[in-house]
Design goal:
single chain; about 150 residues; alpha/beta; 5 helices; 7 strands; globular; binds adenosine-5'-diphosphate; binds magnesium ion; transferase; tRNA processing; ATP-binding; ATP binding
Amino acid sequence: MEIIYNIENINEVAKQLIANVTTKTLLVYGDMGVGKTTLIKAIVKLLGSHDDVSSPTFSIVNEYEANNTLIYHFDLYRIKDVEELYNVGIEDYLFSDNWSIIEWPEKIENIVETPYDRIDLVLNPDNSRTLKLKNKNEFNLINMQSGNI
Ligand SMILES: Nc1ncnc2c1ncn2[C@@H]1O[C@H](COP(=O)(O)OP(=O)(O)O)[C@@H](O)[C@H]1O
Ligand SMILES: [Mg+2]
C-alpha cells in the first residue's frame, strides 16, 4: 500500500494504515523530521487513546492506554547496543498482545522474531509525504528475493 499525504489528511492516513496492517508491531522508518511521531500520534488517537504522544526522551519506551489495549511507543534513536534493548525487556513487549510502534527500528530489525509491518515515510519535494506499508508476508518475500535473509 502506498499513500501520498499532507498533514491535513493525517487522521485519514492513520485510519487507512490501521485497516491494512496485519500485525500489532509497526516498524516506522524515515529520516529525522519526516513525520514518524506525527503519524504515531494519529494512530494512537485512532486506537482510542487520549494520552499525550511525544517521543520518549528519557526512556526508550512510552506506554499509552487505549481501548482495551496498550500501545508501546519506542524511539530507538539513541540506542547504541542491542544489549540496551534486551535490558528493557524488548522481547516481552514484542511478544505481548499489545501494540508496539517503533521509531528508528534499524536498531532492532535483526532481532525482531515476531511478525511485523514495515512503514516507510519519505519527504517529497512539495513537502507532502509518501507512506509505504509492507505487510510481513510481502516484506519477507522481498527480503528473500533480494537475498537479505
Ligand atoms: N504529511 C505531512 N505533511 C507536512 N508536514 C508534516 C507531515 N507529517 C509531519 N509533518 C511535520 O513534520 C515535522 C516533523 O514531524 P515529526 O513527526 O516530529 O518527525 P519525526 O518523528 O519523523 O522526526 C512536524 O512539524 C510535522 O508537523
Ligand atoms: Mg520522532
